[in-house]
Write a structure and sequence with these properties.
The structure is a single chain. By secondary structure, this protein is mainly alpha-helical. It is built from seven helices and no strands. It folds into two domains: 88 residues, no CATH class; 39 residues, no CATH class.
């Protein structure tokens, strides 16, 4: 049995959720999956945790799955909407959303930095402003 990371476990959880709700399809848009063993096989394949493929192929499969989740092309995201996609990404990465991801623009971050008298703020990028505000 292959040891799974937290993001891999979250991917397996999402795929099994799709199976339980009748949303999981084989080959992306093929027939619905009705066999629980097939659902488990698909979940492990998408999570890159199957013992039937090489570690290189497992990594590639997992990267492809993460990209699909980020684009919101999972059955769960399509059915449940944007909130499900954000929930999946948040739990899969193990991080909460940062200030910019919450909708703060560079202008808003700059204004906050100005109020806090952060030196060098005018030459900072958005990411640098976020980092300076976190300190």
């Amino acid at each position: 049995m292959v040891q799974q990371s937290k993001p891999q476990k979250e991917t397996v959880k999402r795929v099994m959720h799709e199976y339980k709700h009748g949303e999981l399809k084989s080959r992306g848009n093929g027939p619905k999956v009705k066999n629980p063993k097939q659902a488990i096989a698909i979940a492990l394949h998408e999570a890159g945790a199957t013992n039937r493929e090489s570690p290189k192929k497992n990594r590639r499969n997992f990267q492809r799955t993460k990209a699909k989740e980020a684009r919101g092309q999972t059955a769960q995201a399509e059915t449940e909407g944007k909130k499900a996609q954000e929930r999946t990404l948040k739990s899969a990465t193990g991080r909460g959303r940062t200030g910019a991801a919450k909708g703060q623009t560079k202008k808003a971050l700059y204004a906050t930095a100005q109020k806090q008298h952060i030196a060098g703020r005018s030459k900072m990028s958005k990411a640098e402003l976020e980092q300076a505000l976190r300190r």
